[in-house]
Amino acid sequence: MRRPLRIIMLGPPGSGKGTRAHIISELYGIPVITTGDMLREAVAKGTEYGKTAGGYMSRGELVPDEIVNGVVGERLGRSDLENGFILDGFPRSTPQAEFLDDFLEEHGLKLDYVIHVTLEDEAIVKRLSNRRSCPNCGEVYHLVSKPPKKEGVCDRCGSELILRGDDRPEVIRNRLAVYREKTQPLLDRYMKKGLIKEVPGDYSMDRLSEQLKRMLG
Ligand code: AMP
Predict the structure, then answer these.
(1) What residue owns the CA closest to ligand 1's atom 5?
(2) What residues line ligand 1, using a CB cutoff of 6 Å?
(3) How many Å lie between the centroid of ligand 1 and the Cα of residue 57?
(4) What is the CATH number of the domain that holds 90?
(5) 56, 158, 175, 184 — which has fewest CB within 10 A?
(6) Which of 34, 35, 180 to mutate to test the pocket of ligand 1 (most atoms within 8 A of CB)?
């Protein structure tokens, strides 16, 4: 049996972190923990923290660290992570990275890689404004490179596809600015720990698995 893999996906919104996270998940049988999906679910259910989080999310701002750390701490405490985990969208700020470091240390665990996915801003805006998401099952489409079989309808579950409110160009610009200010500094932190692996965000799907397998072994 291979050793557990604990991975962080780091990169701007729309760079392709989620796609890569899911490929790694399938290759190595490790769960992906996607904070954006967890928060969107809480908003849809109208839970207490979902109500607070929704406002920040619609403006493209970060949800306060206490809320996100609480959600992630609870998820990391569950028992299905013996093969490791892939964090997609967390940490996104220094207090979140510190929270994660403390959690790992307390549990005697260590990170293996921080995968930095890179893409130019213009390509990100183009990609995200063409993205359509299924609010029911979470499947993600792209109007040009991965359109649904029937226009506006999810192939997987038949629900109506939406343009996420925060995938509108004006909100995307804000998400990118927030990324530069709050999340990008984490690169330095993980660089110093020697954990960073750089991957371009614009590889075609068929090259991705090969690239990731070569990188992770
Ligand atoms: P994403 O789907 O990863 O782009 O996340 C969508 C939105 O959820 C972000 O713009 C934030 O408002 C919120 N969010 C997701 N992950 C985090 C996090 N780690 N810290 C704070 N806010 C987050």
Answers:
(1) 36
(2) 13, 35-36, 39, 56-57, 60-63, 68, 89-90, 92, 96, 166, 175
(3) 7
(4) 3.40.50.300
(5) 158
(6) 35
What the block records as the tokens of 132 is: 């359509």
Per-residue pLDDT tens over the stretch 97-107: 999 999 999 99
137 lies in some domain: yes
Ligand 1: atom nearest CA of 18 is: 3
Question: Is pTM beyond 0.85 here?
Answer: yes
Report CA-CA distances (Å) from 193 to 146, 186, 197. 37, 11, 12
In a domain, 119, yes or no: yes
φ, ψ for residue 48 (rounded to 5)? Answer: -55, -50
Backbone angles phi, psi at 215, to 5 degrees: -75, -40
Distance 36 CA to ligand 1 centre (A): 5
Q: Helix-strand-coil percent breakdown of the chain, rounded to 5? A: 50, 15, 35
Longest dimension (CA), the chain: 49
- Give a yes or no: residue 75 inside a domain: no
pLDDT-based confidence at 1, cuts 50/70/90?
low
Residues assigned a catalytic role? 17, 92, 131, 164, 175
The mean pLDDT value for 45-63 works out to 94
Position 115 in a domain? yes
